[in-house]
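Weekly sync, protein design subgroup
Attendees: M.S., D.O., the rotation student, P.L. (late)

Item 1: inverse folding check
M.S. brought a backbone from last month's batch and wanted to see whether the design step gives back something sensible before we order anything. D.O. pointed out we never logged the input encoding, so this time it goes straight into the notes. Structure tokens as presented (148 positions):
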């Protein structure tokens, strides 16, 4: 498939305040891209209607799924959203991810985030992994759909 949709539904973590990340590979998971990523993230937190921006991270070594940090599973806090991977099979153009999430963070605030990531490779992407900044995933589902 050239385009993939990843759906995150009620993803929970074991360690409070950790973020969810992704890495991609062009050699079936033998190694993962850890440079050449460009990222822009916008988030809005309901506490005081504040808006924080994270932009221009040219040295990103992974794909940030959610910046704000998910609260602990014990408090019923979770993250849900979608990630679109475009151009995964292109060998003459870069690939891109567009991510949108909503979560309840470590202080009980609802947060929405939109992240775009440019993946500077002209290789076919054939593996993807998801992981937390610390600890483990404690629940929820991550589903991958291929689209033609």
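Designed sequence read out in the meeting:
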């Amino acid at each position: 498939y050239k385009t993939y949709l990843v759906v995150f539904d009620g993803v929970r973590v074991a360690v409070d305040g950790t973020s969810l990340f992704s890495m991609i590979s062009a050699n079936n998971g033998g190694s993962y891209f850890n440079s050449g990523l460009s990222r822009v993230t916008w988030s809005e937190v309901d506490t005081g209607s504040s808006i924080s921006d994270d932009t221009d991270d040219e040295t990103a070594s992974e794909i940030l799924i959610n910046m704000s940090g998910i609260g602990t599973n014990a408090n019923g806090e979770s993250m849900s959203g979608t990630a679109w991977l475009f151009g995964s099979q292109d060998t003459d153009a870069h690939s891109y991810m567009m991510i949108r999430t909503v979560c309840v963070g470590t202080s009980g605030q609802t947060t929405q985030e939109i992240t775009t990531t440019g993946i500077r490779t002209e290789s076919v992407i054939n593996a993807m992994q998801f992981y937390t900044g610390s600890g483990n995933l404690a629940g929820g589902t991550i589903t991958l759909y291929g689209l033609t």
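Discussion: The longest strand covers residues 3-13. The chain is about 0% helix and 55% strand.
Action: P.L. to compare against the previous round before Friday.
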